[in-house]
Amino acid sequence: QAKKLGRGRCVVFDVRMRTRVQRYLHLEQDLRHAVARKQLWVAYQPIVDLHTHAIAAVEGLLRWRHPVYGTISPTEFIPLAEETDLIKEIGLHALHSAIRDLAAYRTRRRLDLQVKANLSARQLDDPHLLAAVRAALHETDLPAAALCLEITESTLMQEPAAAREVLNGLRQMGVKLAIDDFGTGYSSLAQLHDLPLNTLKIDRSFIAGLGGSSDTETLIASIVALGHALDLTVVAEGIETAEQLDTIQRLGCDHGQGFYFGKPVPIDELLETSSVGVGVQE
Ligand code: C2E
Ligand code: MG
Ligand code: MG
Ligand code: MG
Fold first, then answer.
1. Complex ipTM, two decimals?
2. 267-281 as b/e, with b when 16 or more CB fall inside 10 Å?
3. Secondary structure of the chain: what % helix, strand, coil (to 5)?
């Protein structure tokens, strides 16, 4: 009996494994053509100024519309792209789309919005990165200060020296820089102080942990203090409830981002879905 059961389980496991491996192989294969086939697009999520309640920025988040599997999350396909040089093409495509979308949106709606875009580790050693960013800003007339590039804390700490060089180049261009998913890596104060950053984004695991132990509040408060000591704008990611928003505001975060304010949506849906006012350009 046990033997039978065991074998049955084994078959189920096999089928699941095979499906997963097949999906992986298909996605890996199809990702190579995703840019050319125009299947990659950028969704935008509002980032709200917690003092004025206006949208201060939007973050561009890549989406893959796959003909068979439907919409695929970047948490699945970005790691796939990062295994090869494909991340450079895909990353630049996302960056260029975000710059182009925001430039058009700002003109149409007369809004002074900043756009944030994510950079992956392997883009930091792409020799074309700086020139590509400069060309995209020039082509669209987007002011450099309206672009903020996000790099995760763990990426920054992988190659701190190389990262600093690229970041300094971007900084000289006038582009703003953020450290993303902060609190999950192991950066030291000295390293943080050394990087030309403008913004610190607290990883959403901290916000998700609110309401559990009171230690989480203490942790967030000390990250906010650290950020402010370094003169950085502090953003809380992953705000989903009014209670979390209350706490985050009490703890002194400057900006907030999360499903409570709005999910990532196509650029044209941005104003309709967000429940907050918007700052208008002079
Ligand atoms: P991230 O840069 O930390 O982006 C925030 C992620 O949190 C997004 O997931 C967003 O949809 C999600 N999020 C925002 N608010 C909430 C909330 O209230 N609750 C929950 N549960 N989640 C929330 P998404 O879009 O799946 O992206 C995942 C990650 O993929 C990003 O994390 C980023 O690291 C990476 N990524 C996305 N687009 C790009 C890109 O163009 N280039 C690169 N290199 N990475 C990208
Ligand atoms: Mg990000
Ligand atoms: Mg993040
Ligand atoms: Mg993340």
1. 0.98
2. beebbeebeeebeee
3. 50, 20, 25
Taking CA atoms, 127 is separated from 133, 139, 166, in Å, by 11, 20, 9
Q: Is 253 exposed, middle or buried (0-12, 13-18, 19+ CB in 10 A)?
A: buried
- Expressed in angstroms and rounded, the spacing between residue 59 Cα and the centre of ligand 3 is 10
Tokens read off for 14: 């096999």
C-alpha distances (whole Å) from 20 to each of 17, 25, 34 are 5, 9, 20
Terminal C-alpha separation, the chain: 77
The pTM score is 0.92
SS3 state of residue 44: strand
Residue-wise pLDDT tens digits, 16-45: 888 888 999 999 999 999 999 999 999 999
Quote the DSSP letter at residue 280: B
Instruction: Find the length of the chain.
Output: 282
Residues within 6 Å of ligand 1 by CB: 45, 61-62, 73-75, 78, 91, 94, 118-120, 150, 180-181, 204, 237-240, 257-259, 264
Which ligand 1 atom sits closest to the C-alpha of 239?
A: 18
Closest of 109, 89, 88 to residue 44, by C-alpha: 109
132 closest CA partner among 161, 84, 100 = 100
Q: Which residue has the tokens 């590509």?
A: 132
In sequence order, what are the beta bridge partners of 70? Answer: 66
- Band of residue 161 on the pLDDT scale cut at 50, 70, 90: confident
What are the beta bridge partners of residue 54? 277
DSSP state of 197: -
* DSSP-assigned states of every residue in 81-114: HHTSTHHHHHHHHHHHHHHHHHHHHHHHHTB--E
